[in-house]
C-alpha cells in the first residue's frame, strides 16, 4: 500500500502544523498526514496524543506506515462520531448493516425461487 504519494498538499503536514514545527520538503510524516487531513489528524491526536502517534510511526516498519497512518486517522474520526464506543461502535454498526443486507438478500432469493 502506498502513502498518499508525492503530490500531497502545498501546506505543512498535519503533524508539523500540530507541533508548530517547520515542515521540510523531506518531512518523514508529510506522505502519511498531508495538510488536507489536518482535521482527521487533530481528532487522532486528541485520542492518542501527538507524541504517541510520532512514536508509533517511527517504530513501524516503512512498509506498514501507510496502513498505520490510515488506522490512526480512522480511529480518530470514529471517536468523533461515536465518543462512547469509537471504532468498536463503527464496526458493530457495519456488522449489523451486513446482517441486515444478508437477510434482505435471502428474502429476495426466496421470492425469486418461489416465482420460478
Ligand atoms: Zn511535516
TrEMBL record:
InterPro entries: LOB. Signal peptide: none annotated. PROSITE patterns: LOB (PS50891). It holds the Pfam family LOB. Residues 11-112 form the LOB domain. PANTHER family: LOB DOMAIN-CONTAINING PROTEIN 4-RELATED, LOB DOMAIN-CONTAINING PROTEIN 5-RELATED. Belongs to the LOB domain-containing protein family. This is LOB domain-containing protein. The lineage of its organism: Eukaryota, Viridiplantae, Streptophyta, Embryophyta, Tracheophyta.
